């Protein structure tokens, strides 16, 4: 198992990749809005959602999670090679057979989309539909090698490849959409080209690196693991996107747009906090599960990951009005109201994802289906009850209630499969402090002179937790060690650039009291000797 410092290093690298990819998404938005008409951009969005649905039905996400699980639990290198070879064969068969069937029915499916989206000019043609499908069908070619890099905790290589993929996609989008005037076809074509280029190269490298033969035993295991995740994936599509359709039917496009902005901001917190930490933890938890103290370690890991989420989420919640105004202006001001409840909703959704670990370790993914179906029923009921009356706020509250139900249900089921000693006192205190600070910020006016006060409230959160004893002794030692390392690094940088920190400090301090004098230590800091 990797050390705590190494864990944070890998998580920071994954987080950097997530931030750059998210930034790239904002880079492409002005390109699309300037080169595509609103109807063309709508076509691009519809095709993207449809392609994602096809990918879920073909079990791409389930196979990826199955590969990560079986690879980590393999006992020797030869068994790992068999798992990789079986997964690649399974992906290839699924892409050729399933993708081929969808390609054949592309024309009637595109006509069905035109009917439901009222695209009277027939802009969603079968060729565009096939191009969108080709882009999503080629994605697993790079997903398999990238999953293996994650399993081996090769974070630098993982991030390098991920960033290279996205940068090339941006360049090709600019070329195809703006200069070659390819429109929607150009945007989809750039994605398909990047997926094919990186996918073939990475798969070839992985095949040469770890040659192996597929086995029937691993094939049955992978299918048994991944099949229950398909209906769950479709349910999660409704959990994360169904509220927009209810809003569209009950309200108008303006409210859909403002709600979507607030929702996307909250989702970004997960991308920048939980996701990078979980990517490292998911590659280590299978080994930890074999230890005698697995229940305690899993509980501590869950607390620390959720703490990172709350700290980032609190920063967004405190400045929710300012951030929304900066990104969308006055027309989107209503989006700020839904940020906090959606952030709280994703706290429970993140907690449920962490509790899922026991189901993956014990290969009991079938239990997730019942949990997800029940949560979808609750969520849809809340949508129907709250959205017609309260609009966007109703959608946010419905999402929060649904994810609370998801977290409680996941805990109730997973505890019998893989017991974890959850640190409820620390989690409750963490959440209570964050909600209390946010509630106090609601009484402050929206002016620039309040920003330092809100920043101070954000920094107060870890101080309050520390003073209240919510941090363990090991965490306290890690914080002190990290603080000392940061101070030493700044001192080294200042010293290497010729800044005599000790000399400057010595001139500022009185030196006329007996034996009191200032001396620099080995890092150039000022030490007061008496």
Overview of this protein structure:
This protein has 530 residues and is mostly helical. It has three domains: 1-227, no CATH class; 228-471, no CATH class; 482-529. The chain has 22 helices and two strands. A two-stranded antiparallel ribbon has the order 1-2. Helix 11 crosses helix 18 (366-417). The relative contact order is 0.08.
Spatial extent as radius of gyration = 26 Å
Structural class, by secondary structure, is mainly alpha
Query: What is the count of distinct domains?
Result: 3
Roughly what fraction of the amino acids lie in strands?
A: under 5%
Largest sheet: 2 strands, antiparallel
Percent of residues in helices: over 70%
Give the integer mean of the pLDDT values: 77
What coarse outline follows from CA principal-axis ratios? Answer: globular
State the distance separating the first and last CA atoms: 45 Å
Q: If strands are numbered along the chain, what order do they take across the biggest sheet?
A: 1-2
Provide the low-confidence segments as ranges. 116-122, 500-530
Order of helices and strands: HHHHHHHHHHHHHHHHHHHHHHEE
The beta-strand count equals: 2
Number of helices: 22
């Amino acid at each position: 198992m990797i050390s705590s410092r190494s864990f944070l290093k890998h998580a920071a690298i994954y987080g950097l990749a997530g931030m750059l990819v998210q930034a790239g998404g904002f880079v492409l938005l002005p390109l699309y809005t300037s080169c595509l008409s609103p109807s063309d951009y709508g076509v691009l969005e519809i095709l993207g959602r449809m392609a994602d649905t096809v990918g879920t039905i073909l079990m791409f996400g389930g196979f990826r999670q199955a590969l990560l699980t079986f690879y980590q639990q393999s006992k020797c290198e030869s068994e790992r090679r068999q798992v990789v070879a079986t997964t690649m064969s399974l992906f290839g068969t699924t892409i050729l057979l399933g993708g081929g069937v969808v390609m054949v029915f592309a024309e009637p499916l595109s006509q069905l989309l035109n009917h439901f989206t009222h695209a009277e000019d027939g802009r969603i043609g079968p060729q565009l539909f096939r191009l969108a499908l080709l882009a999503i069908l080629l994605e697993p070619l790079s997903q398999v090698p990238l999953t293996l890099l994650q399993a081996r905790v090769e974070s630098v290589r993982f991030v390098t490849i991920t960033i290279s993929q996205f940068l090339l996609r941006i360049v090709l989008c600019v070329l195809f959409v703006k200069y070659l005037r390819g429109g929607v076809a150009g945007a989809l074509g750039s994605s398909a080209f990047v997926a094919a280029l990186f996918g073939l190269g990475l798969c070839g490298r992985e095949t040469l690196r770890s040659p192996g033969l597929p086995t029937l035993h691993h094939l049955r295991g992978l299918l048994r693991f991944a099949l229950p995740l398909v209906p769950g994936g479709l349910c999660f599509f409704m959990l994360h996107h169904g509220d927009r359709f209810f809003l569209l039917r009950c309200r108008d496009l303006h409210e859909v747009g403002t709600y979507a902005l607030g929702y996307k901001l909250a989702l970004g917190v997960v991308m920048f906090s939980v996701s990078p930490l979980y990517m490292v933890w998911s590659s280590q938890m299978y080994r930890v599960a074999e230890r005698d103290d697995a229940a305690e370690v899993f509980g501590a890991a869950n607390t620390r990951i959720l703490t990172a989420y709350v700290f980032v989420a609190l920063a967004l919640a405190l400045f929710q009005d300012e951030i929304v105004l900066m990104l969308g202006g006055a027309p989107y001001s209503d989006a700020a109201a839904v940020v906090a409840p959606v952030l709280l909703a994703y706290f429970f959704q993140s907690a449920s994802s962490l509790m899922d670990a026991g189901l993956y370790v014990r290969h009991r993914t079938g239990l997730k289906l019942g949990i997800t179906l029940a949560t979808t029923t609750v969520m849809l009921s809340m949508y129907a009850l709250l959205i017609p009356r309260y609009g966007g706020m109703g959608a946010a509250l419905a999402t929060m209630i649904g994810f609370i139900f998801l977290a409680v249900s996941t805990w109730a089921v997973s505890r019998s499969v893989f017991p974890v000693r959850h640190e409820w006192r620390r989690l409750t205190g963490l959440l209570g402090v964050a909600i209390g600070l946010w509630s106090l910020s609601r009484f402050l006016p929206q002016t620039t002179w309040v920003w330092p006060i809100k920043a101070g409230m954000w920094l107060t959160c870890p101080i309050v937790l520390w003073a209240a004893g919510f941090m363990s002794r090991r965490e306290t030692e890690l914080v002190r060690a990290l603080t000392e390392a940061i101070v030493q690094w700044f001192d080294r940088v200042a010293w290497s650039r010729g800044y005599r920190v000790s000399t400057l400090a010595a001139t500022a301090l009185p030196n006329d009291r007996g034996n009191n004098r200032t001396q620099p230590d080995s890092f150039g800091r000022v030490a007061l000797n008496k």
